[in-house]
Amino acid sequence: MPISRRTFLTGAIAASFALPTAGRLLAQTPQRMMPRNAGIYRFKLGNFNLISISDGILNPPAALFAGDVAPEKLKEVLQQGFQGETLAVDCNVLLVDTGENKVLIDTGSGLLNGATAGKLLENLQQVQIKPIDITAVILTHAHGDHVGGLNGKSGFNFPNARYFIGKQEWNFWTQPSVDLPNFGGPAEMKQQAIKIAKTQLGLIRDRVTQFDVNQEFLPGFTAIPAYGHTPGHVAIRIASGNAVMVHTADTVHIHTINLWNPSWKPIFDADRDLAATTRQAVLEKIASDRTLMFAYHFPYPGLGHLRSRDRGGFDWQPVNWQFES
Ligand SMILES: [Zn+2]
Q1: Residues with CB under 5 A from ligand 1 (ion)
Q2: Can you list the domains of the chain with their CATH numbers?
Q3: Which of the four pLDDT bands, split at 50, 70 and 90, describes residue 241?
Q4: Which of 131, 203, 206, 267 fits a 20 to 30 Å CA distance from 322?
C-alpha cells in the first residue's frame, strides 16, 4: 500500500496519535462558524439510562484501516460506502447511569487530537450531569482517542471517579520498557502511541482498579477479552435485567471497510493478525446472538445491530432514532 510518509503522518495525527503540541494549538482556537447538531443521544437498557455523547470526529486516511489491501479494492469499498479517501470517523463516548453509578466508558481525545475532537465536556454540558458527578470511568484501552480526555488544562476532568482498566492492558503499558513489535505504522507513530499511553495511565496510577475479564467488575459491567488492537483491549458487556448490550470499543473501526471485511487489517493494531481473529469472533457472536451493539467509531450515535452477510463480513443496521428514550 503506497502511503507516502507525509500522508501517513497526517493520518497518524488524525488517527489519535497526534503530536500533543499541534493538537493543543488547534484546541485553543474556538471556532463556531457553523451551527451544530446535538451531540447527545439518550436511550434505555433495562433500568439503566444511557447517553451516547459525541467527542467529535477524526479525519484519518481510509488506507490506515486497510493495511495490506490493494488500492483498487479499497477504492471499490469506499465507493460502495459513499466515502472518500479521507474519512470522518466519529468518537462516541458512552455514559451509563445505573442509578447507583454514573459510568463513562472512555474519555475521548481531550486536548490530543485537534479541534474536531475533544468535545466530550462541551457536549456533556447539554445533559444534567456534571463531570464531578461521574463516579466511574472504564477505559477499554490506552489509545489517545480513548484516554486523552482523562485530563484537561486544569487537571482531572472527572475528579470524583474511580478508574477501571483491564489487568492485561494496564500491565502492558506500565512495564518499564514497552514495545509493539508487530505494529504496522512508522516508528514515530508507534513511539507517540506508547508515550501517550504511559503519560495518561500515569495520571490515574493511584486511583485505578484493574479488572479481570469475563467477570462483573462493577454491577452491570463485564469485560470481554478483545485482544489485538492493543494487547489488553476489551469490549464491555452491559446488562440490566434481561437487557444486554455490547460496547465493542475498537474491536472494529469503520462500519464499511472493516465490517464488510473483518480480515482487513488496520496498520495501527498492536497485533494485526490477532486483532483480525478477535474481530471476526466477537462480531460473529454479536450477530448470531442478535445483541444490541454500541460502537465507539461508528456513525453517531453508534447504536445498532449486526447481520452476517452471505459473502462474508457483516452489515450494520443502526437503530431508528428514538425521540423519547
Ligand atoms: Zn479508537
Answers
A1: 145, 250
A2: 5-29+37-316 (3.60.15.10)
A3: very high
A4: 131
